[in-house]
Amino acid sequence: MAKVVIHSIADGPNEVLVDGRPVAYLCRCGGSSRKPYCDGTHKRAGFKAPEAYVNVLE
């Protein structure tokens, strides 16, 4: 079974990792024009949030 991890990048998007490889970057600032995907708006908006990891599936 694939190992799936959500990595919330400090001050950035949620990175979805499958077996250690990034497969998507999901917006968590709420400002992306490509929701649910990140378009870099967090940088211009000054979004601040801590880094975190969540194991979804192992």
**Number of folding domains?**
1
Number of helices: 1
Spatial extent as radius of gyration: 12 Å
How confident overall, as mean pLDDT? 95
CA(first)-CA(last) distance: 7 Å
Beta-strand content: 35-45%
User: How much helical structure, as a percent, in the residues?
Assistant: under 10%
Pfam family, one: zf-CDGSH
Keywords: 2Fe-2S, Iron, Iron-sulfur, Metal-binding
GO molecular function: 2 iron, 2 sulfur cluster binding; metal ion binding
Protein name: Iron-binding zinc finger CDGSH type domain-containing protein
Can you describe this structure in just a few lines?
With 58 residues, the chain is mainly beta. The protein has 1 helix and 4 strands; from the N terminus they run E-E-E-H-E.
